[in-house]
Design a protein that fits this description.
This protein has 104 residues and is of the alpha+beta class. The chain has one domain. The chain contains 1 helix and 5 strands, in the order H-E-E-E-E-E. Strands 1, 2, 3, 4 and 5 form a 5-stranded antiparallel sheet that branches. The longest helix is centred in the N-terminal third of the chain and has 37 residues. The model has no long low-confidence stretch (mean pLDDT 90).
């Protein structure tokens, strides 16, 4: 019979893996959203990547506690300057996306 410490350790490992899996899946969605937004805005999506910058717990519209994940990406208009974009996902839904003011 496993001890309480072993059960807690196993639970922690399972929760850590579930968190990693969920954020990895969401990062792929964020990548597609950032790439599409850059294409729609006629700017260049730089480094071909998004970065998970912050994770918090927040209540969604149904009142359930879910993850609020912040992602960052960079883009350029003429190739000479870098601008930042940020997006937030509440659960699996895109909550907000913003791009820094930039030259056209």
């Amino acid at each position: 019979m496993p001890s309480l410490l072993e059960l807690l350790l196993l639970s922690g490992i399972v929760l850590a893996f579930a968190f990693w899996w969920r954020t990895h899946e969401l990062k792929q969605v964020a990548y597609q959203v950032a790439k599409r937004r850059c294409h729609e805005s006629n700017v260049q999506f730089l480094d071909d990547s998004v970065v998970l910058s912050k994770v918090r717990l927040r209540r969604n519209l149904e009142g359930r506690v879910t993850l609020l994940c912040h992602f960052r990406f960079e883009f350029s208009t003429l190739g000479d300057e870098r601008y930042r974009g940020e997006m937030q996902f509440l659960g699996r839904r895109l909550h907000n996306i913003e791009m820094e003011p930039h030259k056209l």
